[in-house]
Amino acid sequence: TQRGKPLLGCLHSLGSGSPRCHLPWAGSCVSTLREAHPLPRGLPPAQQDPHRTPCFGQPGPVHTSPTSLRSPGPHGSVLLGARGLFCLWPALRPVHRWARNPRMGTLIGVYLPCLQNILGVILFLRLTWIVGAAGVLGSFLIVFLCCTCTMLTAISMSAIATNGVVPAGGSYYMISRSLGPEFGGAVGLCFYLGTTFAGAMYILGTIEIFLTYISPGAAIVEAEAAGGEAAAMLHNMRVYGTGTLALMALVVFVGVKYVNKLALVFLACVVLSILAIYAGVIKTAFSPPDVPVCLLGNRTLSRRGFDVCAKVQAAGNGSAPTALWGLFCNSSTASSSCDPYFVQNNVTEAQGIPGVASGVLLDNLWSAYADQGAFVEKRGAASVPVPEEERGAGRLPYVLADITTYFTLLVGIYFPSVTGIMAGSNRSGDLRDAQKSIPAGTILAIATTSFIYLSCVLLFGACIEGVVLRDKFGEALQGKLVVGALAWPSPWVIVIGSFFSTCGAGLQSLTGAPRLLQAIARDGVIPVLQVFGHGKANGEPTWALLLTALICETGILIASLDSVAPILSMFFLMCYMFVNLACALQTLLRTPNWRPRFKYYHWTLSFLGMSLCFALMFICSWYYALFAMLIAGCIYKYIEYRGAEKEWGDGIRGLSLNAAHYALLRVEHGPLHTKNWRPQVLVMLNLDSERRVKHPRLLSFTSQLKAGKGLTIVGSVLEGTFLDRHAEAQQAEENIRALMGTEKTKGFCQLVVSSSLRDGMSHLIQSAGLGGMRHNTVLMAWPAAWRQGDSPFSWKNFVDTVRDTTAAHQALLVAKNVDLFPQNQERFSDGNIDVWWIVHDGGLLMLLPFLLRQHKVWRRCRMRIFTVAQVDDNSIQMKKDLQTFLYHLRISAEVEVVEMVENDISAFTYEKTLMMEQRSQMLKQMQLSKTEREREAQLIHDRNTASHSAAAARTQAPPTPDKVQMTWTKEKLVAEKHRSKDASVSGFKDLFSLKPNQSNVRRMHTAVKLNGVVLDKSRDAQLVLLNMPGPPRNRQGDENYMEFLEVLTEGLNRVLLVRGSGREVVTIYS
């Protein structure tokens, strides 16, 4: 307790601002925090103490309390726990004191902005038409699906938004930090495009209200002929829309503060309009408004050209034709020629808004979809059909369907009316308690607007006649807004309110979209957008606003509200789909950082919301959905290849780790089948004194061999101890990774610090990889300087590495003259890849050229296979068998049999191949191939073997598994068996049992002879692949072994020595 008093006193004094506490163990913690939260200007000098930065390093005073703690003492752990408080408090305290105190609560900060963004133009201009076309039941389903989608998205968004601070960028920030920069950038740009097109939709709605319901006479373009009103209207929308867009963009450019100040005014207009609708519905129960609709038979007539709904009217003592008569007849006399339908059907007048108690709801329950140009007809009304009639021909004042209606189209048109749920999360920095306000305000706003929309669907269907509902532009009501005719006390409440609300929504879109683009540009994930991250001195996104206005203009040039709405529906649905995906992914991965304060979420709800968004995309418009997904996919690939490297701890990386863990556990079980075998390469690199790679072409060859498929581990060894050379090891690893990126080698880097190069390489061969993802092939460069005594990579290390790979049952590839190998940019226009197949190695020699020819460098090269026969072998049959073998392997290559004297071959295979035990094994395998040839064509046969040779082969010792075998005929092997018993033939004895001089002479003679044959056939080959004999069992012959390999490959430009593991790596079966 006594030791705790100074700490408490220090904290207490810190809170009062007394600069009297000196902490001698301070370091540099506050300086980092000060960079993120700088002190405001104009502080008193006493509070701008330069000695307050140190906090954990060298001694330095931190003035915080009246008590001095000069030493941590024996209770360092107690003081260490308090050090975080001493460090954090002085840095965070000025932030809370001088920063702008956010005072916005749930109502002002989240609920009302969401309400304003959700309720908008579709409610006033299109909802009645949707109810009339889809029916009450269909419309209810449409609204319910869309509201359910946004509610599920809001639940997922609340979980993400309460899992930390959401700065500027809103949905883009949430998605990018949860799914990574690729998904974040792609979906963020789609959300930006959706917001921009939403601005175009709101502007088009504003112009439609103005030209149709406020001032129809303001049209600039007039219809040139009858029936051209629709085209003239589109031209007027384009002209007025462009001017309105320029005006709104200028307002946003001048100052966003004016837009924010008018936001409450616009919201008040929306609320008053909705209240007027409910008041009008209540009024219809007692006193329905007088809204007459004129019908000819069962067809609705447009009231724009006449006033009296009758064929004739009383005039003095008689009757006179009305204006309606003049529209259907060519004169006003009784004998005039009139439209047949007009003659045979009566003109009646119906009540357009019969009221909520009229029972019209039953008539409006079912859908009434219509084709473009169809008559708007009243169900159940008497009508005499007329054959061969042109619909809407000429000047007849019918109300016609302007577009073909169906369920999916109406979903796409309606969905933008439920967007805007991100308004609260975008303002998280201005909220008093964002963790509480965002979920409560957003979900409450969606519940409120869902109730409004669903109730309006029922009330519109219960109050308004079906033909009036299907009259999109109110032509039967003399050009009045249908919702306005229902409202109380005046239709102008709806007209003016909807006009200002759409204006406000357009301004909000033009304000929010540039800021979203600026946030994406400043993140740096899309390099081409960096210019849009700049703006005015106060941070306003000028360039982003200009781009937004240009994109918005394309939507205005479309000029049709019904055509623009599905476009932005696609982009919003894609954004909402990925918000749900982000929440579901984070929940399923159970990452430790996933700790949202909002607890009422579940991954099944997020998955349901994601599925619903995906389904709605294709329900609205499958071709728009594919187009939006194509745009997002292109952006994703662009960010993946050209974007800046960002590491945000996103969920996709966590998902990759989980998938990798699952896959590793799967491949761990059971041995790998031959059909799945491919070289999983461990590349051994040598480093120079500056820790740079000596042979970069080795990585080029690796990428050409692998082409990004399978496992590649790039390994190297630093000599020394890890404690002394860990910094150098890190630098060397960075150099290797940089070279891997330059050479486009896809793989992993593993660098080992070991006491010796020999042990380090042995450790890599044994332990590189993880689980089932381990290498089966080692690729290394030939030690060109092996004769020099001071070579760091001596011939002893090389031979021991060969032995290690053999013991580990791994294949070995040794590239000689590796600096002459081609780079990835080079292309061989012609040439050969020659394979000298001396020893059967499981098929690796056949497989390597095939893999190389898949790469662009080697694609035009031809593959040739040379096999060696003695003079008494049947060369024609050997060639035929080898061609059959290659045919079954689906490998195209030229085959050539080279004849050599037997002594040369025996000397070349000086390891175990001339021993009796090995000969008997090969002979046994050759014998078995007669019965297994149809099942496994992995061996070269000789069909002309004598019966006594086969019998002699069966008497030999059983074969030892995983041994190499020669491509000789059986007669030759039996002859070798008998000749080896003759002491006069010393060339076929164990060479290493001879005297050193005699052995060296014999080996050198064989190497020179075989090298001459290879040079004669393959001097101009682009690459030569040779069997690499294993090292001798007696270590005293290692240096002679190196000399033999050197002479064997002398004079060849590019050589790849191949030592197979002895296990089959190719098969004839699919």
From TrEMBL:
Which InterPro entries does its entry note? AA-permease/SLC12A_dom, KCL_cotranspt, SLC12_C, SLC12A_fam
Parts of the chain that traverse the membrane? 104-125, 137-162, 183-204, 239-256, 263-282, 403-423, 443-469, 489-507, 543-561, 567-589, 601-625
Compartments annotated for it: namely:
Cell membrane
Keyword annotations from UniProtKB, A to Z: Cell membrane, Chloride, Glycoprotein, Ion transport, Membrane, Phosphoprotein, Potassium, Potassium transport, Symport, Transmembrane, Transmembrane helix, Transport
Any Gene Ontology CC annotation:
plasma membrane
- Which residue range or ranges hold the SLC12A transporter C-terminal domain? 696-813, 814-1070
Signal sequence span per UniProt?
none
**What does the record say about its membrane topology?**
Multi-pass membrane protein
Family, according to the entry, reads as follows: Belongs to the SLC12A transporter family. K/Cl co-transporter subfamily.
Q: What is this protein called?
A: Solute carrier family 12 member 7
Gene name of the record? SLC12A7
